[in-house]
Amino acid sequence: MRKPYNIKWRPSDLRRLTNIAKRFNAKLTRTVKKIPEAQYYLPERLNTATIRQTVKTRQDFNALLKSYERFLAPGAENPYVGKSGIITTNWQKREVGIRVGVINRRRARELKAANPSTLKGTMGTITENNLRPKKYNVDKILPSNWDKFLESVRKQSAASYSFDKMQLLKENYLKSVDAVFGGTPYANYLHEMLDNLPPDFFTDGMYDNAYLDIDFVYDEHDMNMVFEKLVAEWNKYLAS
Predict the structure, then answer these.
(1) Which of 55, 60, 120, 63 is CA-nearest to residue 95?
(2) DSSP 8-state class, residue 216
(3) By the 8 A CB rule, do 117 and 123 touch?
(4) How many other β-carbons are positioned within 10 Å of the β-carbon of residue 180?
(5) Would you say residue 86 has pLDDT above 50?
(6) What is the pLDDT of residues 22-72, one digit of tens each?
(7) For residues 131 and 166, is the Cβ–Cβ distance under 8 A?
(8) Over 70: is that where the pLDDT of 152 sits?
(9) String of b and e for 43-65 (b: at least 16 CB within 10 Å)?
(10) Backbone dihedral region for residue 141 (phi beyond 0: left; psi -120 to 50: alpha; all else: beta)
(11) Which of 62, 131, 166, 234 has the smallest set of CB atoms within 10 Å of its CB?
C-alpha cells in the first residue's frame, strides 16, 4: 500500500469547498427557520477552515464534497428517529452507512492480504488489527454512544487510516524492542534491521509470521533466546 499523499489545495478546490459550504449552511438556516426544533438533530454548520485542517487526501476531499452534496437533496434534512432513541437526519443515517461500507470493503481487502491461519499462528491478527466487519444498525446504538460512533466511522473511513494504522503498529513494535532490549546492543541491531522498513512491508511480515511477536523476557538467557529467534525470523522474511 502506498502512503496517501496530503492534498495540495488548489484555487479550484477552495472555490468548490466554499460553494458547497454556503449551500449546505443555507439549507440548515432555512430548515431551522421553518422548523426551530430541527436545530437539535441537524448536522453542524460547515467551517471551511476546519475542513481544510482535517482533510488529508484528495480522495477524502472528493468523498466529503459528494457527501455534502447529498445533503442538498430534498428530504435529506428530515428527521430519522431510531428505536433506541437516536434522532438524526435521513442524510446522516445514510452517510454513516456509506462510510461503514467503505470501512468493511477495506477490511476485507486487508484480511485477504493478511491471510491469517491457525497453521501460521496468526489468527489473532484478525482481532488485534480490527479486521472484522464493522457493525452498523442505527436502531441498536444508544443516543449516548452516537457521537462517539460517528467519530470512529469518520476516522476509520479516511483514505489515510490504513497506512496510519500500519505506521502505528510499527512504532509500537519498536517501542516493545526498546522495552525488552533497551540499553543493549540487541536493541540497536533490531532498530538497524527494522527502522527503514516501509510500514506496509513491515505489517505484512507481522501478519505472516507469529514468531515475530516479541516475548517477555525474565533473564539474560531469555533475552538471548528471544533476540536470536527474532533475528532469524526477520532475516527469513526479508530474504523471501
Answers:
(1) 63
(2) P
(3) yes
(4) 20
(5) yes
(6) 999 999 999 999 999 999 999 999 999 999 999 988 999 999 999 999 999
(7) no
(8) yes
(9) beebeeeebeeebbbbebbebbb
(10) beta
(11) 62
Q: Which residues contact 178 (CB under 8 A, 6 or more apart)?
A: 187
Residues 151, 125: Cα–Cα separation, whole Å:
24
Q: Rounded CA gap, 25 and 156, in Å? A: 26
Q: What is the pLDDT of residue 119?
A: 47
Q: Which residue has the cell 480522495?
A: 59
141-164 mean pLDDT: 90
Three cell numbers, residue 54: 482535517
Q: Which three cell numbers stand for residue 85?
A: 432513541
DSSP notation for 23-84:
HHHHHHHHHHHH-GGGGGTSPPPP-HHHHHHH--SHHHHHHHHHHHHHHTSTTTTSEEE-TT
